[in-house]
Amino acid sequence: MIGYVTLGTDDLAAAAAFYDALLAEFGAKRILDLETFIVWSAPGGAASLSVTKPYDGRPASVGNGVMVALAAPSREAVDRIHAKALALGAANEGDPGPRPPEPFYAAYFRDPAGHKLNVFHFG
Question: Which residues contact 26 (CB under 8 A, 6 or more apart)?
Fold first, then answer.
C-alpha cells in the first residue's frame, strides 16, 4: 500500500536527529543518506519515511490535513513512542488513548518542523 512518505524540511540535520531517534523505536535505520535527502526503513519491507529539502528551493511548509501514520506493535509502544517524540521536541497533538472505532488506539504529535504524525495500534 504505502511505499514511502516524504516530508519537507529546511533543517535537514535537525530532522535527521529527530527521525534517527524516533524511528529507531520501530527498528528503522537510514537506507539512503544524501546531501538533501534522507530515507529510513524498518526491516521486513515496511514503508519508508524520508525528509528532504524542497526540490524547488522554496522554504518547506506543512500541508494542511496531511498526516503520516506509523503503525506500532502494541498500545504500550504507542505510549512509549509518543513520549519519545515529545522528549525529542515534538508538540503534542493528542495524548495516547482509544479512539473510534474500537480497538483503535492512537496518539498524535507534530515533529519539530510542524509535520503531523500519528502513532497507532489496532487491538
Answer: 42, 46, 70, 72, 81
Quote the radius of gyration of the chain (alpha carbons, Å): 14
State pTM to two decimals. 0.91
- Give which of 68, 4, 88, 71 is closest to 39, Cα–Cα: 4
**CB atoms closer than 10 angstroms to residue 59:** 10
Residues 108 and 118: beta-carbon distance below 8 Å: yes
Decide if 33 contacts 41 (C-beta within 8 A).
no
Cell readout for 94 is 493528542
Model pLDDT for residues 80-115, shown as the tens digit of each residue: 999 999 999 999 999 999 999 889 999 999 999 999
Label the pairing between strands 48-52 and 67-71: unpaired
Separation in Å, CA 61 to CA 41, 44, 93? 23, 31, 18
Domains annotated for the chain, with CATH where assigned, are: 4-54+66-122 (3.10.180.10)
Q: Which three cell numbers stand for residue 85?
A: 517524540
C-alpha grid cell for residue 37? 535527502
Report yes or no: 4 and 102 within 8 Å, Cβ to Cβ. Answer: no
